[in-house]
Specification:
The chain has one helix spanning 27-41; strands at 2-14, 17-23, 48-62, 65-72. It is an alpha+beta fold and 73 residues long. It has one domain (2-72). It has a four-stranded antiparallel beta sheet, with helices on one face. The longest helix has 15 residues, at 27-41.
Length: 73
C-alpha cells in the first residue's frame, strides 16, 4: 500500500543527484541520524553529502519499515 505524506527525510546527495532517501521521525531524528552517518563516512566523501529536508513523498512499507518510493515536487 502506498501513501503520500509530508515527512522529514535524510537525503544522500552525490554530484547534485539524490542517491538515497530515508524517512525519519521528524527534524530532530533526521539531524541525529545525519550526525551519526556523517561521523561514519566523514564530512565530504567524493562529492557525497547528507541533508535533512521536509518533503512530500510517496511512501510504502517494506518488511515493517517505511521507505520513500519517490519525492513529489
Amino acid at each position: 500500500m502506498e501513501t503520500i505524506k509530508v515527512v522529514f527525510a535524510i537525503l544522500m546527495i552525490q554530484n547534485g543527484s539524490t542517491v538515497e532517501m530515508v524517512p525519519t521521525d521528524g527534524l530532530s531524528d533526521c539531524l541525529k541520524q545525519k550526525r551519526l552517518i556523517t561521523r561514519q563516512i566523514g564530512e565530504e566523501q567524493d562529492g557525497i553529502y547528507m541533508q535533512c529536508k521536509e518533503v512530500t513523498a510517496s511512501l510504502y512499507e517494506d518488511m515493517g519499515r517505511l521507505k520513500i518510493k519517490k519525492i513529489i515536487e
